[in-house]
Write a structure and sequence with these properties.
- There is one protein chain.
- By secondary structure, the protein is of the alpha+beta class.
- The chain contains 9 helices and 9 strands.
- Helix 5 crosses helix 6 (82-93).
- It is elongated and about 65 Å long.
């Protein structure tokens, strides 16, 4: 079973326990960093965000069935008090626990059921190639996202467009979309940028990131950029688990060169996933 599958099993089978990200990662056989990245790419959720929503979903189910003691439901969902549980419940569903118990149904709640691979999102991909990537320094605009709130990335590319070709020390005309997972596992930083010289002075409005020499599996997305979600979903849910490679603790990135037309959104995009030697 792949790390994501192990993490899902561990969370679902230790549902009422106060488990931590470290314990979930240990049960999955990978680091916190590796699990956070692979889980987010595969499911669209952070690890702890998924666990929180699953617990609250089951709590809502119990309440709609008429559970008489809200504090017991809160404790089963690993909340230490009625107040903390009610606040989290209302923030997620827009209703209080009392209102859900009173209405006796779940029709107006957006629940999260146990994750299962969505076969409709799987696409046919060419076998990846292995590349020995050289060191890179990327400069550009950065945004912070969770896997549930990454819809702002296209707008970030629009904001970056005026900088393209006007950055001091820019090397070539290839763009990079770099994903850097955060240490606290709550999401990732996404950098829209270009390669620049090591000594380039990029100015205060941009950020820079150094990516070390690294081996990669390189996948190719073909067609409109709007379909890249399916390509990424397939990579993390099927292609990587079947490849036999372990993902390394380094940034992964999208590479946009002359094969991609930024005006129409059509063409080819490469997705570089770092792997252990």
């Amino acid at each position: 079973m792949d790390p994501v599958g192990k993490a899902l099993w561990f969370m679902e089978s230790h549902f009422a326990e106060a488990i931590t990200l470290g314990e979930i990662a240990e049960a999955s056989g990978v680091s916190r960093f590796d699990l956070s990245r692979s889980f987010g790419r595969a499911t669209g959720h952070t690890v702890m965000g998924y666990l929180r929503r699953r617990r609250l979903t089951e709590a809502a189910r119990a309440l709609s069935g008429g559970a008489p003691d809200i504090l017991s439901v809160a404790l089963d969902a690993s909340y230490g008090s009625h107040e903390a549980f009610s606040r989290a419940f209302r923030d997620l569903f827009g209703l209080t626990p009392e209102q859900v118990r009173m209405q006796g149904h779940l029709d107006n709640l957006e629940l999260l059921e146990p994750y299962q691979m969505d076969e409709s999102l799987l696409v046919d991909l060419d076998a990846p190639r292995v590349e020995a990537g050289r060191p890179l320094r990327i400069a550009g605009l950065s945004g912070r996202y969770t896997f549930e709130t990454n819809q702002g990335i296209p707008a970030q590319w629009q904001r970056f467009a005026p900088h393209f070709g006007n950055i001091s020390g820019q090397i070539g005309w290839t763009s990079y979309g770099v994903c850097r997972s955060l240490e606290d596992a709550c999401g990732f930083d996404y950098i829209s940028g270009v390669e620049v010289a090591d000594d380039a002075d990029i100015g205060p409005e941009l950020v820079s990131l150094r990516i070390p020499a690294q081996r990669y599996l390189v996948f190719v997305h073909r067609g409109h950029i709007a379909g890249i979600r399916k390509t990424v979903y397939t990579i993390w849910n099927r292609s990587l688990p079947e490849s036999g490679h372990e993902v390394a603790d380094s940034s992964d990135f999208e590479l946009y060169d002359q094969r991609f037309d930024a005006t129409t959104g059509n063409g080819e995009v490469e997705i570089w996933i770092p792997i252990r030697s």
